[in-house]
Design brief:
There is one protein chain. This protein is mostly helical. The chain has a domain of 86 residues: Serine Threonine Protein Phosphatase 5, Tetratricopeptide repeat, CATH 1.25.40.20. It contains nine helices and no strands. Helix 3 runs parallel beside helix 5. The longest helix has 19 residues. It is elongated and about 70 Å long. The termini are far apart.
């Protein structure tokens, strides 16, 4: 049984055997997923810890351009997020915290959900992406929309 299959079964004995037998803890599965991404998506914190200790790559991105950290956060697993956060970028940690806070999975002060700051962060990330691919700057577009809304309110 492959490591990915063992993780899909969530059978801890099978996972331990597959982990011991595997040559590559970063084997790719469908959608360019890895055992670490699958374990994180399923909330298997003990397996995530074992995979990290075995050398699994936490910064790998699947076909959806998501890392194990983002999969764990999007599925509401704060213990897995805590394990993976030290291996992530600041932007990924912020996004993971926002996911957890939005889903009510965390009550720590640094996880407070602030819609305006989350919106601003999303606009900033979109602006960087737009500049990279040569599209109109979302910040300028947002300013135009806000001015337009102000004009409508005045009328």
């Amino acid at each position: 049984m492959s490591l990915l299959d063992a993780i899909a079964s969530e059978d801890r004995a099978a996972i331990a055997a597959a982990l011991k037998a595997t040559r590559d803890v970063n084997e790719l599965g469908p959608g360019r997923t890895t055992p670490l991404i699958e374990a994180a998506r399923r909330g298997l914190d003990d397996v995530v810890a074992q995979l990290l200790a075995a050398g699994a790559e936490p910064s790998w991105r699947d076909d959806e351009q998501e890392t194990a950290l983002l999969k764990a956060a999007a599925n509401g697993y704060p213990r897995v997020v805590a394990l993976l956060s030290p291996h992530a970028t600041d932007d990924e940690r912020d996004l993971a915290r926002s996911f957890l806070a939005a889903f009510g999975q965390s009550h720590a002060p640094e996880y407070q959900y602030d819609p305006s700051s989350l919106h601003q962060k999303a606009v900033e990330v979109a602006a960087r992406a737009a500049n990279f691919v040569g599209h109109d700057d979302p910040l300028k577009r947002l300013e135009r929309q806000e001015r337009s809304q102000e004009l409508k309110k005045r009328k």
